[in-house]
Design brief:
164 residues, alpha/beta, 5-stranded mixed β-sheet
Length: 164
């Protein structure tokens, strides 16, 4: 009598195990940034990308984006990109956010931001139910980890380690 175990399957056919594992999702995003420039996640190929979904009136989002902006400025030369995706229903809210950040931060401290509800925007990040929601993507744009809600202390460590 032969036992069917994972080890037995691997010894019998390593290919069978590879077929059983689903392919990792490669994330995609295309749109126009708040400056009117075309933006494609593929422009950041080979870099770790932190994609943060936020709304203008979310206090947790503002707190996280402030910390993420500091991380972005400190690590932009380490193949790291911060990408903001605004999910407000009304573009007026994004325009107000953009006006505030344009006056509050020097140009080198501003990160690319897109409006998810803009005509022509497309992505495969799925439905966002928690504000903020953050996706850390590896250089191949596959998910390293996801955080719904505010970034936790351990998340910063994982993000830092992903840059090495």
């Amino acid at each position: 009598m032969q036992s069917t175990t994972l080890a037995g399957l691997m010894m019998a056919s390593p290919f069978a195990l590879a077929q059983a594992k689903p392919d990792a999702l490669t994330y995609k995003l295309q749109g126009t940034d708040i400056a009117g420039k075309k933006l494609d996640l593929n422009h950041f190929s080979g870099r770790t990308v932190l994609v943060s979904f936020f709304t203008f009136d979310c206090d947790l989002c503002s707190h996280d984006l402030k910390l993420m902006r500091e991380f972005y400025v400190s690590n932009a030369k380490k193949k790291f990109v911060l990408l903001g995706v605004n999910i407000d229903q009304n573009k007026k809210d994004l325009d107000e956010y953009n006006d505030i950040t344009t006056h509050a931060y020097p140009k080198d401290q501003r990160f690319p931001t897109v409006w998810r509800n803009a005509p022509g925007h497309s992505d495969n990040f799925g439905k966002i139910v928690t504000q903020p929601t953050h996706f850390v993507l590896d250089p191949k744009h596959q998910l390293a980890f996801k955080r719904e809600g505010t970034f936790q202390p351990g998340d910063w460590d994982k993000l830092w380690l992903s840059l090495e």
